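Need tokens for this chain, all 348 residues.
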Amino acid sequence: MKREGDGKIRISQERFSLVETKDRLYKVPVTALVDGKENSFLMTEKEKVIEGTKAKLNLDRAGFYRVFYDDVDSFFETDPNPKERWGLINDYFAFLMKGMIGQDEYLSLVRRMENEENHLPAGEVASQMFLLYTINPERWGIAKQVLTKYAERWKTRESEVDRQLYASLVDSLSYMDESFASTIAPMFEKMDSMIPEMKDAVALAYSVAGGEKAHERLMSLYKESNFDEEKLRYLRAMLASHKPCLVANALNMALSGEVKKQDIPFMVIWGSMFNESRDVTWEWFKAHMERISRYYQGTPRMGVIMGNVLPLVGLTHEDAVKVAENVKEGKAFVEVGKQKLQLYKKLF
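Here are the structure tokens for all 348 residues:
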């Protein structure tokens, strides 16, 4: 959408895809708020000019289409609701991955939403920021600043959705910042009253801040626990350690029979997601790939694993694509991973 500057607004459509380039025309049921008045129309043409000075499209995010604003001020001038603000940042993250906008334009929008008060758009920003941080923490270091502001704002909120968002923020910040993790780690001694998401975050913080001593305790708790939810919590926390030797120690539990075969994929995926664990996880996985593949023979599980780890591992390991292409089952998942890798390279 583009404001023409003469009391007119130009709306055009094109097919959006992260990987394909073929264009086509659609019949788009457009909803709009133009100069304070709601309007709707079926757009069948490539371009359409309407009268108005400020507008937003796709009211309440009810339509299955993305909206790019030539001037995003037009959107904010209409007092958008939380669903619409969520939709805007979701759209612009897709535009960033596509290459339609650059880092500066995207971050300008993120900064504009740093004072967000609603959990829906704030949670979307936080999720995007953490993903970008896992892709390249140096390029996307602003993630710590944004998530820290949100965490301070959500710390005392009591609704269920707000508590879940706060737990997610604590989880991400605990991995990104050891000093922050040190402030959360003492809560490990009183986790019983916490929601599950907060338990996950506190266990991760305990692992990051506590080093070898925390690792040994988490491993002991893992072996003692009879509940799958707890076991997975402790495994994930151990794999989030910033010490590669401790990550390797946790991974080796998959070879000793202490970890259920069904949980090994989670270990590899988690280890590949965390920046500090990625290299050791990849080398470990390659070394034991043949053995692990036998566990899942006749299923697409190896392809699922590769499809999940390839987008991040492939950024710094040139052999990742070749190794992934040698997977015999679940090749469709590998292809998806290869496509994601090409998108993540733009953000690396």
